[in-house]
Design goal:
The protein contains twelve helices and five strands. By secondary structure, it is mainly α. It has two domains: about 210 residues, HUPs (Rossmann fold), CATH 3.40.50.620; about 80 residues, Orthogonal Bundle (Tyrosyl-Transfer RNA Synthetase). A three-stranded parallel β-sheet has the order 1-2-3. A two-stranded parallel ribbon has the order 4-5. The radius of gyration is 20 Å and the shape is globular. Catalyzes the attachment of tryptophan to tRNA(Trp).
Length: about 325
Protein backbone atom coordinates (compact mmCIF):
# COMPACT_ATOMS: atom_id res chain seq x y z
CA UNK A 1 0.00 0.00 0.00
CA UNK A 2 1.22 3.50 -0.82
CA UNK A 3 2.70 5.26 2.20
CA UNK A 4 2.11 9.00 2.55
CA UNK A 5 3.75 11.51 4.86
CA UNK A 6 3.05 15.22 5.23
CA UNK A 7 3.12 17.88 7.92
CA UNK A 8 2.26 21.36 9.10
CA UNK A 9 4.57 23.47 11.22
CA UNK A 10 3.11 25.33 14.19
CA UNK A 11 4.55 28.76 13.43
CA UNK A 12 1.20 30.54 13.29
CA UNK A 13 -2.52 29.99 12.96
CA UNK A 14 -3.47 27.73 10.06
CA UNK A 15 -4.57 29.58 6.92
CA UNK A 16 -6.83 28.98 3.98
CA UNK A 17 -3.61 28.25 2.05
CA UNK A 18 -2.75 25.37 4.37
CA UNK A 19 -6.29 24.09 4.04
CA UNK A 20 -6.74 24.27 0.27
CA UNK A 21 -3.11 23.49 -0.56
CA UNK A 22 -2.76 20.53 1.76
CA UNK A 23 -5.14 19.65 4.57
CA UNK A 24 -8.35 19.32 2.58
CA UNK A 25 -6.83 16.82 0.18
CA UNK A 26 -5.30 14.85 3.05
CA UNK A 27 -8.83 14.52 4.43
CA UNK A 28 -10.73 13.89 1.20
CA UNK A 29 -8.26 11.70 -0.69
CA UNK A 30 -4.98 10.77 0.91
CA UNK A 31 -6.10 9.26 4.21
CA UNK A 32 -8.46 6.89 2.40
CA UNK A 33 -6.22 6.00 -0.51
CA UNK A 34 -3.08 5.14 1.38
CA UNK A 35 -1.38 4.40 4.67
CA UNK A 36 -1.03 8.05 5.63
CA UNK A 37 0.90 9.78 8.40
CA UNK A 38 0.33 13.46 9.20
CA UNK A 39 2.45 15.35 11.64
CA UNK A 40 2.55 18.65 13.47
CA UNK A 41 6.21 19.30 12.72
CA UNK A 42 7.02 21.34 15.79
CA UNK A 43 10.83 21.01 15.59
CA UNK A 44 10.64 23.03 12.37
CA UNK A 45 9.01 25.86 14.32
CA UNK A 46 12.27 26.39 16.24
CA UNK A 47 14.19 27.45 13.14
CA UNK A 48 13.20 31.09 13.71
CA UNK A 49 12.76 33.20 16.84
CA UNK A 50 10.04 31.47 18.87
CA UNK A 51 8.16 31.67 22.13
CA UNK A 52 7.93 28.29 23.96
CA UNK A 53 4.38 28.77 25.24
CA UNK A 54 3.16 29.90 21.82
CA UNK A 55 4.70 26.93 20.02
CA UNK A 56 3.04 24.57 22.51
CA UNK A 57 -0.36 26.25 22.06
CA UNK A 58 -0.05 26.39 18.28
CA UNK A 59 0.96 22.71 18.11
CA UNK A 60 -2.13 21.70 20.02
CA UNK A 61 -4.27 24.00 17.92
CA UNK A 62 -2.86 22.62 14.66
CA UNK A 63 -3.52 19.03 15.74
CA UNK A 64 -7.05 19.97 16.84
CA UNK A 65 -7.72 21.67 13.51
CA UNK A 66 -6.39 18.68 11.58
CA UNK A 67 -8.91 16.49 13.39
CA UNK A 68 -11.63 19.12 13.02
CA UNK A 69 -11.00 19.25 9.27
CA UNK A 70 -11.71 15.53 9.11
CA UNK A 71 -8.51 13.54 9.57
CA UNK A 72 -9.74 10.30 11.04
CA UNK A 73 -7.41 8.60 13.53
CA UNK A 74 -9.11 5.28 12.70
CA UNK A 75 -7.67 5.39 9.18
CA UNK A 76 -4.55 7.59 9.41
CA UNK A 77 -1.82 8.41 11.92
CA UNK A 78 -1.67 11.87 13.45
CA UNK A 79 1.25 12.77 15.72
CA UNK A 80 3.61 15.48 16.88
CA UNK A 81 7.10 15.29 15.38
CA UNK A 82 9.03 15.95 18.61
CA UNK A 83 7.30 12.98 20.28
CA UNK A 84 9.20 10.65 17.94
CA UNK A 85 12.99 10.77 18.45
CA UNK A 86 13.71 9.04 15.14
CA UNK A 87 13.28 12.34 13.28
CA UNK A 88 16.27 14.04 14.90
CA UNK A 89 18.39 10.88 14.77
CA UNK A 90 17.89 10.54 11.05
CA UNK A 91 18.20 14.29 10.44
CA UNK A 92 21.85 14.06 11.47
CA UNK A 93 22.52 11.37 8.89
CA UNK A 94 20.80 13.58 6.31
CA UNK A 95 23.11 16.47 7.26
CA UNK A 96 25.97 14.08 6.62
CA UNK A 97 24.51 13.27 3.20
CA UNK A 98 23.71 16.81 2.00
CA UNK A 99 26.15 19.53 1.02
CA UNK A 100 25.99 23.05 2.40
CA UNK A 101 25.69 24.39 -1.16
CA UNK A 102 22.45 22.56 -1.86
CA UNK A 103 20.98 23.79 1.42
CA UNK A 104 21.93 27.39 0.62
CA UNK A 105 20.20 27.14 -2.76
CA UNK A 106 16.77 26.54 -1.21
CA UNK A 107 14.44 29.42 -2.09
CA UNK A 108 12.68 29.25 1.27
CA UNK A 109 16.02 29.55 3.09
CA UNK A 110 17.00 32.59 1.05
CA UNK A 111 13.65 34.27 1.71
CA UNK A 112 13.55 33.52 5.43
CA UNK A 113 17.21 34.37 5.92
CA UNK A 114 16.53 37.80 4.37
CA UNK A 115 13.48 38.25 6.63
CA UNK A 116 15.43 37.40 9.77
CA UNK A 117 18.26 39.76 8.85
CA UNK A 118 15.77 42.53 8.01
CA UNK A 119 14.35 42.12 11.52
CA UNK A 120 17.85 42.47 12.95
CA UNK A 121 17.94 38.86 14.15
CA UNK A 122 20.72 36.37 13.76
CA UNK A 123 19.93 33.42 11.49
CA UNK A 124 19.66 30.09 13.29
CA UNK A 125 21.79 27.33 11.81
CA UNK A 126 18.69 25.12 11.87
CA UNK A 127 17.05 27.41 9.31
CA UNK A 128 19.76 26.33 6.88
CA UNK A 129 19.58 22.64 7.79
CA UNK A 130 15.76 22.57 7.86
CA UNK A 131 15.52 20.49 4.65
CA UNK A 132 17.70 17.76 6.23
CA UNK A 133 15.15 17.40 9.02
CA UNK A 134 12.34 17.47 6.50
CA UNK A 135 14.05 14.74 4.47
CA UNK A 136 14.33 12.69 7.66
CA UNK A 137 10.61 13.24 8.39
CA UNK A 138 9.74 11.72 5.03
CA UNK A 139 12.39 9.02 4.63
CA UNK A 140 11.99 7.60 8.15
CA UNK A 141 8.57 6.32 7.08
CA UNK A 142 9.60 5.03 3.64
CA UNK A 143 6.98 7.41 2.23
CA UNK A 144 6.12 7.02 -1.45
CA UNK A 145 4.21 10.29 -1.73
CA UNK A 146 4.36 13.68 -0.06
CA UNK A 147 1.21 15.75 -0.69
CA UNK A 148 2.24 19.41 -0.34
CA UNK A 149 1.53 22.87 -1.73
CA UNK A 150 3.73 24.26 -4.47
CA UNK A 151 6.03 26.08 -2.02
CA UNK A 152 7.37 22.76 -0.69
CA UNK A 153 8.19 21.13 -4.02
CA UNK A 154 11.85 22.14 -3.93
CA UNK A 155 12.34 20.58 -0.49
CA UNK A 156 10.80 17.31 -1.65
CA UNK A 157 13.10 17.33 -4.69
CA UNK A 158 16.07 17.67 -2.34
CA UNK A 159 14.70 14.80 -0.25
CA UNK A 160 14.68 12.65 -3.38
CA UNK A 161 18.29 13.59 -4.15
CA UNK A 162 19.37 12.71 -0.61
CA UNK A 163 17.55 9.37 -0.68
CA UNK A 164 19.16 8.43 -4.00
CA UNK A 165 22.62 9.52 -2.81
CA UNK A 166 22.32 7.66 0.49
CA UNK A 167 21.14 4.50 -1.28
CA UNK A 168 24.03 4.69 -3.76
CA UNK A 169 26.64 5.21 -1.06
CA UNK A 170 25.46 2.77 1.56
CA UNK A 171 23.11 0.32 -0.14
CA UNK A 172 19.38 0.50 -0.63
CA UNK A 173 17.83 1.93 2.55
CA UNK A 174 15.14 4.46 1.59
CA UNK A 175 12.14 4.64 -0.71
CA UNK A 176 12.59 7.61 -3.07
CA UNK A 177 9.45 9.73 -2.53
CA UNK A 178 7.66 12.10 -4.87
CA UNK A 179 5.67 15.28 -4.26
CA UNK A 180 2.00 15.41 -5.19
CA UNK A 181 -0.08 18.57 -5.48
CA UNK A 182 -3.76 19.50 -5.48
CA UNK A 183 -5.20 20.17 -8.97
CA UNK A 184 -6.15 23.75 -8.05
CA UNK A 185 -5.07 26.20 -5.33
CA UNK A 186 -1.65 24.63 -4.89
CA UNK A 187 -0.50 28.16 -4.14
CA UNK A 188 -3.07 30.40 -2.46
CA UNK A 189 -1.88 34.00 -2.55
CA UNK A 190 -2.18 36.80 0.00
CA UNK A 191 -5.40 38.74 -0.72
CA UNK A 192 -3.65 42.07 -0.20
CA UNK A 193 -0.46 41.13 -2.03
CA UNK A 194 -1.32 38.51 -4.65
CA UNK A 195 2.33 38.15 -5.66
CA UNK A 196 3.24 36.52 -2.35
CA UNK A 197 1.78 33.36 -0.87
CA UNK A 198 -0.70 33.36 1.98
CA UNK A 199 1.64 32.25 4.76
CA UNK A 200 0.80 31.55 8.37
CA UNK A 201 4.22 32.70 9.57
CA UNK A 202 3.72 36.14 8.03
CA UNK A 203 2.55 39.00 10.24
CA UNK A 204 -1.26 38.98 10.43
CA UNK A 205 -2.81 41.21 7.76
CA UNK A 206 -6.16 41.60 6.05
CA UNK A 207 -4.70 39.49 3.24
CA UNK A 208 -4.65 36.25 5.25
CA UNK A 209 -7.72 34.13 5.96
CA UNK A 210 -7.33 31.92 9.02
CA UNK A 211 -9.29 28.70 9.46
CA UNK A 212 -10.73 30.04 12.70
CA UNK A 213 -11.80 33.43 11.30
CA UNK A 214 -15.43 34.34 11.95
CA UNK A 215 -17.66 34.46 8.82
CA UNK A 216 -17.83 38.25 8.99
CA UNK A 217 -14.04 38.56 9.03
CA UNK A 218 -13.80 36.23 6.03
CA UNK A 219 -16.36 38.27 4.08
CA UNK A 220 -14.58 41.53 4.91
CA UNK A 221 -11.18 40.19 3.85
CA UNK A 222 -12.43 38.75 0.56
CA UNK A 223 -14.48 41.85 -0.33
CA UNK A 224 -11.37 44.00 0.19
CA UNK A 225 -9.06 41.72 -1.78
CA UNK A 226 -6.73 43.52 -4.18
CA UNK A 227 -7.66 42.94 -7.83
CA UNK A 228 -6.73 45.30 -10.67
CA UNK A 229 -8.30 48.09 -12.66
CA UNK A 230 -9.27 45.84 -15.59
CA UNK A 231 -12.81 45.17 -14.42
CA UNK A 232 -13.32 42.16 -16.67
CA UNK A 233 -13.10 38.73 -15.04
CA UNK A 234 -10.44 36.57 -16.72
CA UNK A 235 -8.08 33.85 -15.43
CA UNK A 236 -4.47 34.98 -15.88
CA UNK A 237 -2.08 34.17 -13.04
CA UNK A 238 0.77 36.27 -14.45
CA UNK A 239 -1.01 39.43 -15.52
CA UNK A 240 -3.95 39.42 -13.12
CA UNK A 241 -2.83 37.54 -10.03
CA UNK A 242 -5.45 38.98 -7.67
CA UNK A 243 -8.44 37.90 -9.77
CA UNK A 244 -6.81 34.56 -10.63
CA UNK A 245 -6.29 33.91 -6.92
CA UNK A 246 -9.99 34.54 -6.17
CA UNK A 247 -10.95 32.20 -9.02
CA UNK A 248 -8.56 29.54 -7.71
CA UNK A 249 -10.03 29.81 -4.22
CA UNK A 250 -13.61 29.70 -5.51
CA UNK A 251 -12.78 26.74 -7.76
CA UNK A 252 -11.11 24.85 -4.92
CA UNK A 253 -14.04 25.49 -2.56
CA UNK A 254 -16.70 24.47 -5.10
CA UNK A 255 -14.77 21.71 -6.91
CA UNK A 256 -14.91 23.83 -10.06
CA UNK A 257 -12.48 24.90 -12.76
CA UNK A 258 -11.04 28.44 -12.46
CA UNK A 259 -11.01 29.20 -16.20
CA UNK A 260 -14.58 28.04 -16.66
CA UNK A 261 -15.72 29.96 -13.57
CA UNK A 262 -14.22 33.16 -15.01
CA UNK A 263 -16.83 33.01 -17.79
CA UNK A 264 -19.67 33.08 -15.24
CA UNK A 265 -18.79 36.53 -13.88
CA UNK A 266 -18.89 40.00 -15.35
CA UNK A 267 -17.95 41.95 -12.23
CA UNK A 268 -15.34 41.65 -9.50
CA UNK A 269 -18.01 42.40 -6.89
CA UNK A 270 -20.07 39.32 -7.76
CA UNK A 271 -16.97 37.14 -7.91
CA UNK A 272 -15.85 38.33 -4.49
CA UNK A 273 -19.28 37.80 -2.98
CA UNK A 274 -19.52 34.21 -4.19
CA UNK A 275 -15.91 33.50 -3.20
CA UNK A 276 -16.51 34.84 0.31
CA UNK A 277 -19.63 32.69 0.75
CA UNK A 278 -17.87 29.61 -0.62
CA UNK A 279 -14.99 30.06 1.84
CA UNK A 280 -17.40 30.67 4.74
CA UNK A 281 -19.26 27.45 3.91
CA UNK A 282 -16.12 25.35 3.50
CA UNK A 283 -14.67 26.54 6.81
CA UNK A 284 -17.88 26.54 8.85
CA UNK A 285 -17.87 22.81 9.79
CA UNK A 286 -14.15 22.97 10.57
CA UNK A 287 -14.65 25.85 13.00
CA UNK A 288 -17.63 24.16 14.66
CA UNK A 289 -15.86 20.84 15.11
CA UNK A 290 -12.79 22.66 16.43
CA UNK A 291 -14.92 24.25 19.15
CA UNK A 292 -16.33 20.83 20.10
CA UNK A 293 -12.87 19.30 20.31
CA UNK A 294 -11.54 22.19 22.40
CA UNK A 295 -14.19 21.32 24.97
CA UNK A 296 -12.86 17.73 25.10
CA UNK A 297 -9.05 18.08 25.06
CA UNK A 298 -8.50 14.49 26.19
CA UNK A 299 -9.63 13.25 22.77
CA UNK A 300 -6.81 15.14 21.06
CA UNK A 301 -4.25 14.09 23.68
CA UNK A 302 -5.17 10.41 23.23
CA UNK A 303 -5.00 10.61 19.44
CA UNK A 304 -1.54 12.19 19.60
CA UNK A 305 -0.22 9.64 22.10
CA UNK A 306 -1.41 6.69 20.04
CA UNK A 307 -0.21 8.35 16.84
CA UNK A 308 3.30 8.80 18.25
CA UNK A 309 3.43 5.16 19.32
CA UNK A 310 2.57 3.96 15.84
CA UNK A 311 4.91 6.43 14.15
CA UNK A 312 7.79 5.38 16.41
CA UNK A 313 7.22 1.72 15.66
CA UNK A 314 7.23 2.42 11.92
CA UNK A 315 10.28 4.70 11.88
CA UNK A 316 12.61 2.84 14.23
CA UNK A 317 13.59 -0.12 11.99
CA UNK A 318 14.35 2.21 9.06
CA UNK A 319 16.41 4.61 11.15
CA UNK A 320 18.26 1.75 12.84
CA UNK A 321 19.02 0.29 9.40
CA UNK A 322 20.33 3.69 8.23
CA UNK A 323 22.66 3.90 11.25
CA UNK A 324 23.93 0.40 10.57
CA UNK A 325 24.42 1.21 6.88
CA UNK A 326 26.71 4.18 7.61
CA UNK A 327 28.83 2.09 9.98
CA UNK A 328 27.45 3.04 13.40
P1 LIG B 1 3.27 27.87 6.09
O1 LIG B 1 4.09 28.22 4.91
O2 LIG B 1 1.91 28.47 6.08
O3 LIG B 1 4.01 28.04 7.39
P2 LIG B 1 3.71 24.97 6.26
O4 LIG B 1 5.14 25.09 5.84
O5 LIG B 1 3.42 24.54 7.64
O6 LIG B 1 2.94 26.31 5.93
O7 LIG B 1 2.99 24.03 5.23
C1 LIG B 1 1.92 23.17 5.50
C2 LIG B 1 1.33 22.75 4.17
O8 LIG B 1 0.53 23.81 3.63
C3 LIG B 1 2.38 22.44 3.10
O9 LIG B 1 1.95 21.34 2.33
C4 LIG B 1 2.42 23.68 2.27
O10 LIG B 1 2.85 23.42 0.95
C5 LIG B 1 0.96 24.11 2.31
N1 LIG B 1 0.81 25.55 2.10
C6 LIG B 1 1.28 26.53 2.90
N2 LIG B 1 0.94 27.74 2.43
C7 LIG B 1 0.23 27.52 1.28
C8 LIG B 1 -0.43 28.37 0.33
N3 LIG B 1 -0.42 29.69 0.47
N4 LIG B 1 -1.05 27.79 -0.71
C9 LIG B 1 -1.08 26.44 -0.86
N5 LIG B 1 -0.50 25.58 0.01
C10 LIG B 1 0.15 26.11 1.07
Amino acid sequence: MTRIFSGIKPTGHLTLGNYLGALRRWVQVDQHAADALFSVVDLHALTVDHDPGRVRRLSRQAATLMLAAGLDPQVCTLFVQSHVDEHTRLAYLMECTASDGEMRRMIQYKEKEAQERARGRSVRLSLLTYPALMAADILAYQADEVPVGEDQTQHVELTRDLAVRFNQRYGHTFTVPRATRPPVAARVMDLQDPTSKMGKSHAATAGIIYLLDEPEAIRRKVMRAVTDSGGEVAYDREERPGVANLLDVLAACTDGDPERLAQDYDSYGALKKDTAEAVVEVLRPVRERHAELCARPQIVADVLREGAERARALARPTVDAAFAAVGL
